[in-house]
Structure formats: structure tokens, C-alpha cells
Amino acid sequence: MKRKDINFLVVGVGGQGTILSGDILSAVGMEAGYDVKKSDILGLAIRGGSVVSHVRWGEVVGAPMSMKGTIHYLIAFEPLEALRGLGFLAPEGVVLLNTYAIPPVVVTTGELKYPSWDEIEARLRERAEVVYGFNATEKAQSLGNVRTVNVILLGALSNLLDVPASLWEETIKKYVPSKYEEINVKAFNIGQNLIKEEQKHENYGY
Q1: Within a domain: residue 94?
Q2: What is the pTM of this model?
């Protein structure tokens, strides 16, 4: 059944296309007939700093930002950013995660330690109903353009929503330069297939 109101949180670091993903997600929602609101938050360091995009679909949407505990889908392009966004997740919330880590400056300088994968996974399991995790960076590299990570995750998300794939693909084409249309559609299809593979297993997700 089509959910009346859907709250999304897209998180990543500067340079990963977080804002672009929020723009595409907003446009898809409007094309699908929803009222849509969006709000972006950029960290101090544009490239490498945290970037967050709140997107809300609904019959009538008020505030552009979701309250903590109300996000239905957390789309994370980096594991540490996923942890930072977990407080917004609803009890029935779903996480879509790129498992490739990009340590922040405080980690690379030795000031802080990046959490182990076991720690990350435990915190995700504790909070989320389902977590889909895969190395989207590796998939993007195989396409020849690491900047398609965001579209791979959007492809994965699309399989969980009641919106035709064709609408997603046409919207993506409107938001990327024409010379990158083909590779981004391929990235979108890769994301769709990653979710399908996960769902083939009885205990899909984490």
C-alpha cells in the first residue's frame, strides 16, 4: 500500500552528491503527485564535511525538516554519517548504506578513532528495522565514475517505493549533464539489482 507521508534523510560528505540526490528525490516525489518539502544542511568544510538533505513527501507537508524519530528512509553514502543520522530514524525505519568509509580529518590526523565495522553494524541493528549495506563505491568505480555512488543508492531506494523506475530515470537525466546520462542510468540500475539480490535471501538486510 502506498504510504501517505514519507520522510527521507540523505547523508554524506562533501563531494558525494548529497544535495543533488535530495534534489532528485524531491523532483521524483513531485512527479509522483506528492507535496514535497526539502531542507539542506552543509558542514563547515564543503568538501569532506558532513552534508545532510531532509526530504519529505506527503499529501500536505508542513515543515521541510523531519523531527528526530520520524525518518522512514535513511540513505547514507558513508558509514559514520549513517551513525550521525540514526537519531532521526523511526522505529520502522530502513537504512540504505554505502559501506565504503571516508575517514574525516579528525581521524586522519589521529585525534579520534574511526569506529570498527562491528561497532557500526551493532548500532545500526539496534536502531533500524532493516539495513541494506553494500559497497556502492566499488560498484561506481567499476562503472568508471566514483561520483555515481549517490545514484546507485537512489536506485536501491527506488525498489522500496511505489514509484515507476521510468519516472526515476527520466528525472535523473534532467539533473545530470547530458554526457553523463547513460552512466547514471546504469548506476541506477545497479542499485536496483543490489536490492533485488538482497531480497532474494530469506533474512535480507542485516
Answers
A1: yes
A2: 0.92
Kindly state the cell numbers that stand for 27. 523532483
For residue 92, what are the domain limits? Answer: 6-200
Going residue by residue through the chain (206 aa), what tens digit of pLDDT does each one get?
466 899 999 999 988 999 999 999 999 999 999 999 999 998 765 556 889 999 999 999 999 999 999 999 999 999 999 999 999 999 999 999 999 999 887 787 788 889 999 999 999 999 999 999 999 999 999 999 999 999 999 999 999 999 999 999 999 999 999 999 999 999 999 999 998 887 665 444 54
Cell of 144: 568508471
CATH code of the domain containing 97: 3.40.920.10
The tally of domains found in the chain comes to 1
> Which strand ranges, in their side-by-side order, compose the sheet holding 6-13?
35-42, 50-58, 6-13, 71-76, 89-98, 130-134
Does residue 1 belong to any structural domain of this protein?
no
134/162 Cα distance (integer angstroms): 22
- The verdict on residue 205 lying in a domain is no
In this structure, the strands spanning 50-58 and 89-98 are: unpaired
Cell numbers standing for residue 33: 503527485
3-class DSSP state of 38: strand
How many angstroms separate the Cα of 160 from the Cα of each of 94, 132, 147? 10, 11, 23
**Which residue(s) pair with 7 in the sheet?**
56
